[in-house]
Amino acid sequence: MSRIEALFANKKPMIAYLTAGDGPTLYHLRALIEGGADLLEVGIPFSDPVADGPTIQKAMDRSLQAGTTPETVLELVAELKSPVPVILFTYFNPIQRDLKGFLEKAKLAGVDGVLVVDLPLEEAAEYASLCRRVGLDPIFVAAPSTPVERIELLSRAGKGFLYYACRKGTTGARNELPDDLAARIEEVKKASRLPVAVGFGIADSRSAKAVLEIADGCVVGSYLVQAAFEGKNLTQIMKAL
After folding, report:
1. CATH code (residue 108)
2. Per-residue pLDDT tens for 170-182?
């Protein structure tokens, strides 16, 4: 059993996202752990982050300007020595040149899973196989428009958990959850062989608690990225979620 599987077997985790290299990331990640984050999602910056909204796009731009690369992200994770599981959030372009080598290095650095947001299931067989071979959990994403039959296929191909992006479009903090979220999560959980964690737009404790009542985990991203950029106390913010 992987660390991610063990985590979901014992609780409904709060998953915290930050873009690596956008400010003092090591300090920020440690603050999130201190605040109670159960799993860290660390973003590898990419110049064309089509799945992300303005907040994370700007964070990725700042990170790239600072010289962040996939290799420096792995060095960051290795230095972190995280007591909680770590997954990498990435687009395929930054890691495809030496996919096998990158995944092997990621495992050695202490990474537990990888989420490649723009890699279609039909093109992901080699990636998923390599992940499993080196001991990483391949995480796949489902959306509101994803048919139930495809959700079953995504959960078969993946490991650890299924990420459900609860809104159409890009990432970004929102004030309200979708009205049909409970019904949709019920459908997704019936079709998935994996635990289902919900993200995209979770921006306060009320939304997070509502998600955890119906899903197996909750992902908070843009809200934390903006808070880190503004120099807010991430430990206190994490505790309040």
Report:
1. 3.20.20.70
2. 444 445 676 788 8
